[in-house]
Amino acid sequence: MPTAVLKSPPAGMPTSIVLTDRTRVGGEGTVHFSTDGKYAIKVYHGTPVEREKLLGYVMTIFRTIPRDQERYILPPLALVQSLNGKPCVGFVMRRVEDRYRELVDFVLHPAAAAAQFKQGRTWADYLKLARSISSALVVLHGKGCAHSDIHFSNFLADLRDGSAVMLEVDGVVVPGFLPAQVAGMAGFMAPEIVHRKARPDERTDRHSLAVLVLHTLLFRNAMQPLIDYATDPETSEQLGWGEMALFSEHPADRRHRPKALGVPLFSRGCLSYTMLTEELRRLTDQAFMAGLRVPDDRPTSRDWERALACAIDELWPCTRCRQWFPYPHWLVPAERRTCPFCGMRISPPAPVVLRLLEERGKTGFYTTHRRVVLGSGFRLYADVVDPSRVPPPSRQQEGHVAHVEWDRVRCTWRLVNDNAGVITSSVDGARQEARRGSSIVVEQGAQIHFGPGARMALVVQAGA
Amino acid sequence: MTDFDMNVTMGEGVRRLPVYLLLDCSGSMGGAPIESVKRGVELFISEVAGDTYARQTVHVGVITFASEAALVTKGLVPFDAFTMPTLSASGTTALGGALRLLRQSLDSDLRKSVPGGEKGDWKPLVFVLTDGAPTDAWQEPRQDLLSRQSGKVINMITVGCGTGINEEQIKAIAIGPTFRMDATESSFKTFFQWVSQSVKAVSKAVSQPDAGQAPSAMPQPDPAVIQYVP
């Protein structure tokens, strides 16, 4: 059995690791797996001794990360000093369970996503996946590092719980401190990297992250050039992703606009970013238009993480194809609201749409970007009314303050209080109140209060 | 949802990677060799099918040559539409005819890159497998391929198999690197594994920044089985 010997491993880690015969050969090195299923080790090709010093820095950077962030990345835990008695340069990392697959298998094109949908996965799972990807970058950027090689083969994903793990953390970049080891993958690199005007840093990561998030949500590269810019394909690709980079849904320049854009995905169509929540659309505009050539204007990983987390509250199911998608409350008249997957018009009763407001000092409430879409049996979770929180990655343990029921007699939605406090609703001077177990009628324009210190909700669509 | 009819695409704007297999089906390939080639093509199909990148970009053209040469795929077909061709061995070795068909297909099936137009193709990858000397005129079609100005350059690899190979001659026919191997079942398997690995590596490489270096992304064959002819 092959064996790797570690260099002064931290407490709790063995001094040597027995490996299986299975390996994965990559561009930089070979990854081996321990027989106990706990660890993976990466051994670099050759013996790049200078790499060892850099790994030491990376280990120091990631020695302390909060427990809830550990799952998103695979930092080096200890150096490997020899493999089968031969000196080598490498490191040990946590082993990812076999249930994970490369993200590319799920998101490369609509056919890859359809294969997952056929197994019962939905777009809501992709939304969670996109959030996990952003969270991984939040961890890195929070440490002052950039990844520099963000693309869909550098994430392992499990769509069943929407979790993702970032690979190649050993190659992180800290400007002026840790240099970039790779330039990145075509299609994901920021335009200024493609035409060699910049070196990878956190701002170029922001572009790659936006591409990856949109790829995960739309199953296509939102910056994909659709025309040639030179007779030589290599030169053409360089220009198309670099100097001529252009958002596929640029309102004024339609050169990269897919032919099937906006056609329902399940009719050989192509998803448009206009299906996304208002906040995700705003970030996309910021990343691919305002910030395309102004790196400082690009949204941060934290912006994406937050917007993706909150988008989960705006989903609505299609009664025909059973997909979930952000309810397009912004489309008027309501007849224009259709399922982006199968094209079916959204059938009545229309859901309740709430806009969340937060208290600011003594000056009263101000509106946030957040909306909540509610239908029959939908719960209003405790995190929604807590101004310090965004939806957690999983709500299995999360309590709820209310739920929504359809009132057949009055043909209105009712909000049922499931909490100890009192829920009040007021509109045009009329006031309703509900204690635990009782309910209020959801009325257009009403302000709903969930108690002192809680977020308030404004009913922007009473539904029905 | 599982029973809902999902008519979906592989996306737009992806540059195609044309892959041509020129397979010798002359009489001397009869018996075990042709059976090994069939299994080899099946191996190629299953290997590429398992690779997400390759499956999206690879388009296949198969040209067989015996007394006549034939483009059995009738053109360049998307990988997902490519099915196992019928292969049988008989007759002579019209390699010249195969090169002529390759040129015709390159002229008619390859998409050229025109600035402002829809995306053209990547440089094609061509694998030639033969077990003997050509029985038709190959010099002119070879010269035509070489002097083809209108299209892209190609990456061509020629492998001679079995004892009937004349290294000097195969070197003279080949455009690009030349190899030789024996005609055992395991050698054919190694050859098609190498073809599959090369196609996967190149399809991934064209997704990388320095796409112009695509050929260098190709793995070298196992020298114990497939030897380079200098």
Describe it.
The complex is a heterodimer of chains A (464) and B (230). Chain A is α+β, with helices and mostly antiparallel strands and 464 residues long. Chain A folds into 3 domains: 3-94, Phosphorylase Kinase, domain 1, CATH 3.30.200; 101-313, Orthogonal Bundle (Transferase(Phosphotransferase), domain 1), CATH 1.10.510; 348-461, Tumour Suppressor Smad4. Chain A contains 11 helices and 21 strands. Chain A has helices at 49-61, 67-70, 104-107, 110-117, 123-142, 191-194, 202-218, 233-241, 278-290, 301-311, 382-385; strands at residues 3-7, 16-25, 29-34, 39-44, 78-83, 86-94, 101-102, 155-158, 163-166, 315-317, 324-326, 352-359, 365-374, 379-381, 400-407, 412-417, 423-427, 430-434, 439-441, 447-449, 456-461. Chain A has a 6-stranded antiparallel β-barrel. Chain A has a 6-stranded antiparallel β-sheet with strand order 13-12-21-20-17-18, with no helix packed on it. A 4-stranded antiparallel β-sheet of chain A has the order 14-15-16-19. In chain A, strand 20 (447-449) and strand 21 form a beta hairpin. Chain B is built from 6 helices and 8 strands; from the N terminus they run βααβββαβαβαβαβ. In chain B, strands 1, 2, 3, 4, 5, 6, 7 and 8 form an 8-stranded mixed β-sheet that branches. Chain B is globular. The longest helix of chain B is centred in the C-terminal third of the chain and has 21 residues, at 185-205. Chain B is an alpha/beta fold. In chain B, helix 1 runs parallel beside helix 6 and helix 3 (95-109) runs parallel beside helix 4. Chain B has one domain: von Willebrand factor, type A domain (Rossmann fold, 3-Layer(aba) Sandwich), CATH 3.40.50.410. The interface between A and B is large, with 53 and 35 residues.
- Given helix and strand content, the structural type of chain A is alpha+beta
CATH top level of chain B is Alpha Beta
Rounded to an integer in angstroms, the radius of gyration calculated over CA atoms of chain A is 25 Å
**CA(first)-CA(last) distance of chain A:** 67 Å
SSE-based structural type of chain B: alpha/beta
The CATH topology of chain B turns out to be Rossmann fold
- The residue fraction in helices of chain A comes out at 10-25%
